[in-house]
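Duplicate of earlier report; DUF4393 domain-containing protein input re-posted below.
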Amino acid sequence: MSDSDQRPDDDLDDNWVDKAVAATKGAAGLVPMFGGPLAEVIGVAIPGQRADRIATYVRQLSVRLDQIDADLRDGLASNAEKIDLIEEGGYQAARATSRERIERIVAAVQRGLAEDDADVVRRKRLLILLGELDDDELNLLNAYGRSYGGRDRDAFERVNRPNPVHMQSGRDEIERNYLFDLGRAHLIRLGLLRKNYGNVKKGQVPEFDPRSGDFKHSVEVSGLGRMLLTEVGLGTDLEDDFD
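Output:
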């Protein structure tokens, strides 16, 4: 490819990657036995992948910026909070493991940039929440969002759920259930899913389930969870359903 054919973002990786590789390879070389191979992976594979992800993020965000108000777009360079939002998106894009994940990050950044200055800091909280979820948790949250209010009864068909544990379950199957439940529990702790104990009469408590060690309940997407899904472009039909 000639210099004239080079894309404007082809040099995105050069400076910062060189510095990161130099520092990280030095640390990797201290690892006994695996220092050489590990340093090679860090020096060749990881920086290239991260650069590609950031380049994809920049390209997609550039296209999306054409869709926001011209005055807002022209004022980005002097707006510290919006620059910080773009930077946070770049950090997350560098760690993304799929193109779809980058698309979610870009969608969240675009929505934040379109907000008034006073709301940008608060919208960034949603992007940071996204950064706390792995792709499996986001997929699970999306399934709960799609099934909310009976919208999509097949929503969980897209979730790789382990088979329920029974008396004859082996250790591997039990561990797969533990790990799946760990993801759901994380979503509950973050307030993206919530426990619904049903209609409990005043003065009474829900029935206790000794097997789970908790009161009997169902799990559903919360208002915050629906808000996050909308922010990343996965819940446009949920925008009017917040608690």
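Residues 30-35 have pLDDT under 50 and may be disordered.

Merging into the original ticket.
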